[in-house]
Design a protein that fits this description.
The protein is mainly alpha-helical. The protein is built from 43 helices and eight strands. Keywords: DNA-binding, Transcription, Transcription regulation.
């Protein structure tokens, strides 16, 4: 029976209770569940099992609307052994409950089992005493394996990805899962939900059509009911398991129910839209309703007044509404050009770039007035910037240059395009054109703040860059609605934070990720690059590799292949996979930088130098380091040294070129103000290398460890150990060496450990019995950092798909992690992971 997938534990509990009752030890079992979780099917299956072992079964029916049962007039005489089953006990009258109280007191020495089922949230106070006298068993939503079994059963094979996504919205409700493939699903689900809701059915429909979460005040307005009455109705719906309410906000427990109820409640949307508009609700909330109603004069007038604002924060409903309005208006209507421009902008900010370009070009062909024309040119240029095509952006703006200097907003976009192309002089010229208008146009000011912040951190004024980004964020919070500049500000902030060795860089990346996914293309590839670098620098190498894998799955890397392969090469090299590191270096060399990637070319050169050094080709490694020192790499020339200085100074010292090392250190001192912990530690490390100063190296190692750069902390300790060993201080060398090895081991940097072993062995320093422990093969300590993260999220009750979304990896990757976790821990199910995690404390 489909509804019983995943109910083995419940069936076993009931079967054991029936067997005990048959032996003369009866009892009362209270089953509780939200609607749709298979209570009735479970009771039917239990009755069949009881009959199979020779017990009589009695099904007591609760009669609507009074709730009367055969227990209402007293206790019958049942021939024992027997099982009595009562479904829908929440509807029973008080007399039935009193009879059950009396019956339960004498069941312990009878061959009689009473099994009841009721809705969990309905009038819990009525059942408190019975719950104390009974074995209470809650039916919960079925888990992932049961969901898969249900879907295989209803489809007769492997369910498609679209059905799997829809199943997530059923939240493990078996009844809903079995309806997902029905042709009339929306009608069936709505009938089920509104039948449960009873007199609150209309309220449920209004909650479904409003944007989620719906506020009680909004519900009261559109339903034309008092807020106190709505709150009481919401409480009843919550007791049925249909919605959840917190702090006056209402959400559906099952998204598929909300979707289907909304689909059958279109007739309510027109009045809801007018009510919300009259209350001054957010335009997006009104547009959500109007997108499902016929176009009329009132809708068009309202849209004309709000289109510009809607276009900057579009939802699918906004795009649909604008598109219908443009199609509805006749040629020559005065509202047509502004609405076309708003549609093009909404399509762009929704990530539908090809459609945005078609809409913009079509509108330009109609020769609109200059203000509309400028908006459309902005769409063309910004769409090119999204594709990391600054030359295309400049070309899109060229037709406006024939009219003289670009207007302020287009000049600001031109500045961003020039910067993306690495044209710093062109950037300055465009900024000069745009700057006069920034004083009275906050959007231009935001563009220029982001552009100037980029210039400052390129030249290592990190504090100044953050100050400008703070100003941009303030304007974006208060005065400006521009999704592109908000995303740009987040990405730039993450870069600066990572340069400062600030762990919050990864948090900033996560703030930006949802919108980057909407925009896709070059901005998403850039986000993955920022995240990979920050994860690497913070010692989260599995996460860095996941980011690289995610980027590699994109149709185009938009020039980011160099830094991405460079990071992967460094990780593989440190983990002992030199052939794999070589492959990534070769791929990095083949990558052609464009757009933002031109600011990361030093990462590619560094990875080539590090691999050459590991291969013993010191001459080649030094040549590559000199190219950085000579300013031959990157659009910012010698400033590239500042971001990779510690690692290239190390290569110069190891290669015996002390002059090159000193030159690099001097460049770093000239470029870096030392205002952040990251910069101070890097300068201290490099000075320690150049001067063979053990104290500086050990101090830098501790600074790196405290400020989130574990690989640098390990390297600095290793370098200190080498100098101590070379100076005849083996005991001190061994202590520093052990610190380095412990830090490498935490990163599973087996390749770095092997190279350190070989280097220190030349001085007679060995770890011996005091070396670091190997990771055990079994138990919780055997889990890698990535596996521990997955285990923790599984223990929190997340499905594999939810874990994948949280960690931004594929479901397949999470499946593999879970399989390895189970194998290492000797477990056979996810439940054991939950229990084991809790027992660990």
């Amino acid at each position: 029976m489909v509804d019983l997938f995943g109910r083995d534990e419940s069936l076993c509990l009931l079967a054991n209770a029936a067997a005990q009752a048959r032996a003369g030890r009866g009892g009362l079992i209270m089953l509780r569940a939200n609607p749709g979780l298979g209570m009735t099917a479970l009771l039917d299956a239990h009755s069949a099992t009881a009959r199979g072992i020779g017990m009589r079964t009695h099904r007591i029916v609760v009669l609507p609307p009074s709730g009367c049962t055969e227990l209402s007039t007293g206790l019958p005489e049942w021939t024992e052994p027997a099982v009595v089953v009562i479904d829908d006990l929440h509807r029973a009258d008080d007399a039935t409950l009193l009879a059950l109280h009396e019956l339960a007191e004498g069941l312990h020495d009878r061959s009689l089992l009473v099994v009841t089922g009721r809705h969990r949230g309905t009038s819990p106070a009525r059942f408190e005493r019975l719950d104390r006298m009974a074995v209470v068993h809650d039916l919960l939503p079925v888990e992932d394996d049961a969901v898969s079994a249900v879907l295989h059963d209803v489809t007769g094979g492997e369910p498609p990805e679209s059905l799997l996504r829809l199943a997530d919205e059923a939240r493990g409700n078996p009844w809903l899962l079995t309806r997902l493939t029905d042709d009339d699903r929306a009608s069936a689900v709505t009938a089920w939900a509104t039948d449960l809701a009873g007199g609150d059915g209309a309220l449920l429909r209004f909650a479904a059509i409003l944007n989620e979460p719906a506020s009680v005040d909004e519900l009261a307005a559109v339903a034309e009911r008092a807020p106190v009455d709505v709150l009481a109705g919401v409480a009843r719906l919550a007791a049925l398991g249909l919605v959840e309410e917190q702090a006056g906000l209402v959400r559906f427990r099952h998204p598929v129910v909300r979707h289907d109820v909304a689909a059958t409640s279109v007739g309510l949307r027109g009045s809801a839209a007018r009510t919300l508009a009259g209350r001054g609700a957010a335009p997006a909330a009104v547009a959500e309703q109007l997108a499902h109603t016929p176009m009329d004069a009132w809708t068009l007038a309202w849209l004309d007044a709000h289109a510009d604002r809607l276009a900057t924060q579009p939802t699918p409903a906004v795009v649909e509404l604008l598109d219908r309005a443009v199609s509805w208006l006749p040629p020559g209507n005065s509202r047509l050009h502004p609405l076309r421009a708003a549609l093009a902008e909404a399509l762009m900010w929704s990530g539908r770039i090809d459609e945005a370009l078609r809409a913009a070009n079509t509108s330009l062909a109609a020769h609109p007035d200059p203000p509309i024309r400028h908006r459309l040119r902005a769409v063309l240029a910004l769409s090119c910037i999204r594709e990391m095509d600054p030359e295309g952006a400049a070309t899109a703006l060229d037709p406006e240059r024939v009219h003289g200097a670009l207007p302020g907003r287009l000049a600001a976009i031109d500045a961003a395009a020039c910067l993306l192309a690495g044209d710093l002089e062109g950037t300055e010229r465009a900024v000069e054109v745009a700057a006069p208008e920034a004083a009275h146009d906050p959007l231009i000011e935001v563009y220029l703040l982001n552009v100037r912040a980029t210039g400052l951190f390129v030249f290592r004024n990190l504090a100044g860059a953050l100050e400008l980004l703070d100003q941009a964020d303030a304007l974006l919070d208060i005065s400006v609605s521009d999704r592109g500049q908000w995303l740009m500000s987040r990405l730039l902030r993450a870069v600066v934070q990572d340069l400062r060795q600030d762990r919050t860089a990864l948090q900033t990346v996560e703030e930006a990720r949802p919108l980057a996914r909407v925009f896709g293309a070059g901005l998403l590839a850039w986000l993955h690059t920022i995240a990979a670098l920050a994860s690497f620098n913070n010692g989260m190498w599995d996460r860095a590799l996941d980011e690289i894998d995610a980027a590699m799955s994109l149709p185009d890397l938009y020039g980011m292949g160099g830094p991405l392969h460079g990071v992967a090469s460094s990780i593989l090299l440190n983990r002992g996979d030199l052939p794999g590191a070589r492959v990534h270096v070769e791929l990095a060399e083949q990558s052609v930088s464009r757009g933002a990637a031109v600011f990361y070319e030093q990462i590619t050169v560094l990875s080539r130098a590090v691999v050459a050094d590991a291969e013993g080709d010191a001459q080649r490694a030094l040549e590559l380091v000199r190219s950085l020192a000579d300013g031959a790499v990157g659009v910012h020339h010698g400033h590239a040294v500042s971001t990779v200085g510690a690692r290239i100074v190390r290569i110069a010292v190891a290669g015996g070129d002390h002059d090159l090392a000193a030159r690099l250190l001097a460049q770093m001192r000239e470029l870096c103000a030392g205002e952040s912990a990251g910069e101070r530690n890097a300068l201290m490390y490099c000075q320690g290398l150049v001067d063979s100063d053990v104290d500086l190296l050990l101090t830098a190692a501790e600074g790196f460890a405290q400020n989130g750069s574990p690989i640098s902390a390990a390297s600095a300790a290793e370098d200190a150990a080498r100098i101590l060993a070379a100076s005849g201080r083996p005991t001190d060398a061994r202590a520093a060496y052990q610190t380095a090895i412990d830090r490498y081991a935490a990163l599973t940097a087996t390749g770095a450990i092997q190279r350190a072993d070989a280097a220190l062995r030349a001085y007679g320093v060995r770890r011996g019995a005091t070396g670091p422990r190997r990771r055990p093969k079994h138990g919780w300590d055997s889990l890698t950092a990535a596996e521990r993260r997955v285990a923790e999220l599984v223990a929190q009750g997340l499905t594999n798909r939810e874990v994948a979304e949280r960690l931004v990896v594929s479901v397949r990757t999470v499946d593999s992690h879970v399989s390895r976790i189970l194998a290492k821990l000797g477990y056979s199910s996810r439940v054991e992971i939950v229990l084991g995690f809790e027992q660990r404390g």
